[in-house]
UniProtKB/TrEMBL annotation:
Coiled coil: none annotated. Residues 1-31, 769-802 are annotated as: Disordered. This is Integral membrane protein. The chain crosses the membrane at residues 132-152, 197-216, 260-281, 293-314, 335-352, 372-391, 403-425, 445-468, 514-538, 558-578. InterPro entries: AB_hydrolase_fold. The keyword Transmembrane applies. The keyword Zinc does not apply. Keywords: Membrane, Transmembrane, Transmembrane helix. It comes from Streptomyces fumanus.
Length: 802
C-alpha cells in the first residue's frame, strides 16, 4: 500500500489540470468514500455509522477514523460498493471533552478569550497593519499573564504573609501562620518581613510553573502534530485566506517562544513582588549602602529582563507560508532560566535582616494593578484604531461590529482577568480578616472594580430585557410564516406559537454582536471610572463618598459590598462548576462544547490558553483524504455537522489542488458564515468561502430556520443558490399525518439525517462522485452540474465566477 500511495502522490503532483478532473484514474477501485465529521458535543462511532459493530481504521484513543465491521476491507471488494459509498466516521470529541482534567481549563478562560481576539482581525490587504494588530493582541495577552501572577502574589505575599502574618490578631486566628508572626511565643527565623515574603513567593512561582508545565505538555500533544506537506499557493488562488497555507496548523515555534516569554514574565512578576518592598526600604535616606546598591542592581537586572520579554513577544508572530520546523532552543531555555535566576537572587536579598523593617498596611506594590489596568486600556484603544483602519480598507457589510469584534473581545478578556483576580483577593481577604478591621485588605483598585459590577449587571439585564421584547415581537411576526410553511396542518395556535418562538430564539445568535458591543463598551467605561476613582482618591468608594450626601454614601457602601460578594460568588461558582465537571460526564460534555467553539484556533496570542484541537483534527482529516484519494484514485464526500463542517472546510483548504478537486463537501447546521464568517472575516469571509466552492468538486449546505447555530453560506451571485438549499422544513409535519402518526419534534440544530432532504442531497453528491457516471448539467451538455431539488444548480465543474 505504501508504494501505491507514493505512486499516486507522484501522479497527483504532476497533474496540472485541477479544475476539470478527467475521471477515474487507471488504478481506481471504483469506490466512493463518505467521511462523516460530527459537531459539538461529540458522538460515538456507532451513532454516526448507525451500527454498533465498528472497527477503528486508523488513529488512537484520542481521535480516530472508524468503519462498520463489514466495511473494513471495502477497497478489496469494489463490486459490492458500486451503488453505495463506504461510510467512515472521524471521532474527535476526546480532543476537547474526553478527560476530566480538561474541566480545569475553565480557569484559563481569559487566556482563551484573548487568543480569540487575535483571529477576529478584519479582512484587508497589506501585511503591516495585520502584523500590528497581532502584536497588540500578543501584548494584551502578556498583560493577562502578569495580572494573574500579580493576583497570586496579592493573595500569598500581601494578604497572607505581609498583612495577616504581620498582625498579631490575624495570626492568632490562623494558627498555620503563627510561625510567621513578628512577635509572640512562636516567633522565629521566618518572622522577618522579607523572609515571610520569600517563603510566600513559592505559591505564585508554583502557579507559573504549573502553567508552564501544562503549556509544554499540550504543546507536545497538539502543536507538534505535523500537517501534510504541500507546496504553498498564492493567496489569490486560496481565496485570500491563510487557512490553506502549509504552516497554518503548525504553530510549534511560536508557542514555544511565547511560552518562554510568558513564563519569564510570571517569574519576574514574583521577583518584583518580593524584591520591591525590600528595595524601597533600602533606598530610604540613611539606609545601608551595600543593600542599597544591591537593590539598584537587582532592579536594573529585572528591568533588562522585562525588556527582553517584551522584545521576544513583539519580535515574531506566526509563520504560516511554509512549514517551519525550527525551534529557538536557546531562547526557549535561557529566558525562563534567567528570570528564575533573578527570582532566586531576590529571595535572599529580601530575606536579609533589616533592623526596624516591619510590615504595615498594604504591600508597597499595590499600584501595579492600576498600571496594568492603564496599559490594558491603552492596548484596547490602539487595537480598536487598527481594527477600524483595517475594516475600512476591506469592508464586508456582515462583519460583526464593523470590524471591532476583536477589540471588544480583548476588552472582555481583560475584564474576565480582573474579575477573577479581584474575586480571589476579596474572598481571601474576607476569610483572613474575620472582624474586617485588622487588615488593610486588597488594593483599592480591586475594590473599585468590585463596586462597578452591580451597575454593569443592570446594563446587561436591561439589554436582555430589550432583546426579550424584540424576540417576542419577532415570534409574533413569524406566526404567519409558519402557517405558510405548513399549509397542510390544522390551525393549532399553541403549535404555531411554539414553532415561531423557536425560530425567533434561533435568531438571537445574529444579535450577539449587539450584546458583545454593549457589554464591552459598558465594561470599558465603568472600568475607566473605577481606575480614575482609585487613582484620584486612593480610597475605597465608600470612604471616598464620606462627607457627601448620605444617599450617595449609602449607595457607595451598598455597591462596594454587593460587588465584592458578587465577584467572589461568581468565582466560587466558576470553580465549583469546574469541580463538578471533573466528576460529572454530562457537565464535562457541556464544557467540551465550550472548548469546541473557543479552542478551534491555534494559540497565537497566549501560550497558556487551552490547546487548539484543530491542530490535531485538521491534519488528521487532511492526511486521511489525501492518502485515500491518491491510493485509490476515487472521489470522496466529506460530510460535516456543525463544528465538524468547519473542520471539513479547513481540511479541504489544506489539500493539494489536485486532491481538493476530487472532494465533495456536504455541510449541515454549519456556522461557517453565520458565526465564523462574521466574527473571523479574514479567514472565513465571502472571498474565502467562494474560493472553496470553486476548488472543491461539489458543495451543498443544509440549514433550518430553527437552528441557532447553523445557517446559509450566503455566497455572492449565482454561487449562493448553488451551495445553499432552501431552508429545511422544521418540524417535518405540523400535525399527525400518515407518514408521521406521532407529533414531530422541532429538531433545531440536531438530527439533520432525519430529514429526507439530507439523503437526497447526499445521493446527488455521490452520483457526481461515482467513477464513470458524471451527472449531466442542467442543459444536458455533459458532465458538470447536478440539478438541485429547489431549482438551484449544484455548482461543480460548470460554476460561475464568484
Amino acid at each position: 500500500m505504501g508504494e501505491t500511495v507514493e505512486q499516486a502522490h507522484a501522479q497527483a503532483t504532476g497533474d496540472t489540470d485541477t479544475r476539470h478532473d478527467p475521471g477515474p484514474r487507471p488504478d481506481s477501485t471504483g469506490t466512493a468514500l463518505e467521511l462523516l465529521v460530527h459537531g459539538v458535543g461529540g458522538a460515538t462511532p456507532g451513532e454516526m455509522l448507525d451500527d454498533p459493530r465498528t472497527v477503528r481504521v486508523t488513529g488512537d484513543d484520542i481521535a480516530a477514523v472508524f468503519r462498520r465491521t463489514e466495511d473494513a476491507d471495502a477497497e478489496s471488494r469494489p463490486a459490492d460498493y458500486r451503488d453505495k459509498p463506504v461510510p467512515e466516521a472521524y471521532v474527535w470529541c476526546n480532543l476537547t471533552s474526553g478527560n476530566g482534567t480538561r474541566a480545569l481549563w475553565l480557569l484559563l478562560l481569559p487566556f482563551m478569550v484573548a487568543n480569540l481576539a487575535h483571529w477576529m482581525r478584519p479582512a484587508a490587504e497589506g501585511r503591516r497593519p495585520a502584523r500590528l494588530y497581532g502584536l497588540l493582541v500578543r501584548l494584551c495577552g502578556l498583560t493577562l499573564t502578569v495580572l494573574l501572577t500579580a493576583a497570586a502574589c496579592e493573595v500569598a505575599l500581601d494578604l497572607a504573609a505581609w498583612q495577616c502574618a504581620g498582625t498579631r490578631a490575624c495570626a492568632d486566628r490562623h494558627s498555620w501562620l503563627g510561625f510567621l508572626a513578628p512577635a509572640g511565643p512562636d516567633a522565629g527565623w521566618w518572622s522577618l518581613p522579607g523572609r515571610r515574603l520569600a517563603l510566600a513567593a513559592a505559591v505564585p512561582a508554583a502557579l507559573v510553573g504549573l502553567l508552564w508545565y501544562l503549556s509544554l505538555r499540550t504543546w507536545r500533544a497538539y502543536e507538534s502534530q505535523r500537517p501534510l506537506e504541500h507546496d504553498p499557493e498564492p493567496d489569490e488562488a486560496s481565496g485570500r485566506t491563510a487557512l490553506g497555507r502549509p504552516g497554518f496548523w503548525y504553530g510549534r515555534r511560536l508557542v514555544a517562544r511565547l511560552r518562554a516569554a510568558h513564563t519569564a514574565a510570571g517569574l519576574l512578576t514574583v521577583a518584583v513582588a518580593v524584591a520591591a518592598p525590600a528595595a524601597r526600604f533600602d533606598h530610604r535616606p540613611g539606609g545601608p549602602a551595600l543593600l542599597d546598591a544591591l537593590g539598584w542592581l537587582l532592579e536594573a537586572a529585572l528591568a533588562v529582563c522585562g525588556v527582553a520579554v517584551v522584545t521576544v513577544v513583539c519580535r515574531r508572530g506566526r509563520g504560516e507560508r511554509r512549514l517551519d520546523r525550527r525551534l529557538d532552543r536557546r531562547l526557549v531555555r535561557r529566558l525562563p532560566l534567567a528570570a528564575l535566576a533573578l527570582l532566586l537572587l531576590a529571595l535572599p536579598y529580601a530575606g536579609w535582616a533589616r533592623p526596624g523593617w516591619a510590615s504595615a498596611g498594604r504591600l508597597p506594590v499595590e499600584h501595579a494593578f492600576g498600571a496594568l489596568a492603564l496599559v490594558q486600556g491603552a492596548l484596547v484603544i490602539a487595537l480598536a484604531v487598527v481594527a477600524h483602519l483595517l475594516h475600512r480598507t476591506g469592508s464586508d457589510p456582515r462583519t460583526a461590529m464593523r470590524g471591532l469584534g476583536g477589540p471588544a473581545v480583548a476588552m472582555l478578556a481583560c475584564a474576565l482577568g480582573g474579575v477573577m483576580s479581584g474575586g480571589v483577593a476579596q474572598r481571601v481577604s474576607d476569610w483572613l480578616d474575620g472582624t474586617g478591621t485588622s487588615l488593610a485588605g486588597p488594593p483599592v483598585l480591586l475594590t473599585w472594580q468590585a463596586s462597578v459590577i452591580p451597575p454593569l449587571l443592570l446594563v446587561v439585564l436591561a439589554l436582555c430585557a430589550l432583546l426579550a421584547r424584540a424576540t417576542w415581537r419577532t415570534a409574533r411576526a413569524e406566526r404567519a410564516a409558519v402557517a405558510a410553511d405548513h399549509p397542510e396542518g390544522p390551525g393549532d395556535p399553541a403549535r404555531t406559537r411554539r414553532i415561531a418562538t423557536v425560530r425567533a430564539m434561533a435568531g438571537l445568535t445574529d444579535r450577539a454582536p449587539l450584546l458583545i458591543a454593549v457589554v464591552s463598551a459598558a465594561t470599558f467605561v465603568l472600568g475607566a471610572g473605577a481606575l480614575a476613582g482609585a487613582l484620584a482618591t486612593g480610597r475605597t468608594p465608600a470612604h471616598a463618598a464620606e462627607g457627601t450626601y448620605p444617599l450617595v454614601h449609602g449607595g457607595a457602601q451598598t455597591a462596594q459590598a454587593l460587588g465584592s460578594w458578587l465577584i467572589g460568588l461568581g468565582f466560587i461558582l466558576f470553580v465549583t462548576f469546574g469541580r463538578r465537571a471533573y466528576k460529572d460526564a454530562s457537565a464535562r460534555r457541556t464544557i467540551g462544547i465550550l472548548w469546541d467553539v473557543g479552542t478551534f484556533w491555534p494559540r497565537a496570542a497566549h501560550p497558556f490558553a487551552p490547546p487548539c484541537y484543530a491542530e490535531r483534527a485538521v491534519p488528521d482529516l487532511t492526511w486521511r483524504m489525501a492518502t485515500w484519494t491518491r491510493a485509490t484514485g476515487g472521489r470522496l464526500v466529506i460530510s460535516g455537522h456543525s463544528q465538524g463542517s468547519v473542520l471539513a472546510a479547513s481540511a479541504a483548504w489544506q489539500l493539494a489542488p489536485s486532491d481538493r478537486a476530487r472532494v465533495a463537501l456536504l455541510t449541515y447546521g454549519s456556522p461557517l458564515e453565520r458565526l465564523y464568517g462574521r466574527w473571523f472575516p479574514a479567514y472565513f469571509g465571502p472571498a474565502a468561502l467562494a474560493s472553496l466552492h470553486q476548488e472543491v468538486d461539489c458543495w451543498r449546505n443544509l440549514y433550518r430556520l430553527t437552528d441557532p447555530i447553523g445557517g446559509p453560506v450566503r455566497l455572492p451571485g449565482e454561487c449562493g443558490p448553488a451551495v445553499d438549499r432552501a431552508p429545511l422544513k422544521d418540524p417535518l409535519a405540523y400535525g399527525r399525518t400518515a407518514l408521521h402518526p406521532l407529533p414531530s419534534p422541532i429538531l433545531g440544530h440536531s438530527d439533520y439525517q432525519a430529514d429526507p432532504a439530507f439523503a437526497e442531497e447526499r445521493e446527488r453528491l455521490l452520483a457526481r462522485l461515482r467513477p464513470g457516471l458524471p451527472a449531466p448539467r442542467p442543459g444536458g451538455d455533459g458532465p458538470g452540474t447536478v440539478p438541485a431539488a429547489d431549482g438551484g444548480h449544484q455548482g461543480c465543474a460548470g460554476r460561475s465566477s464568484a
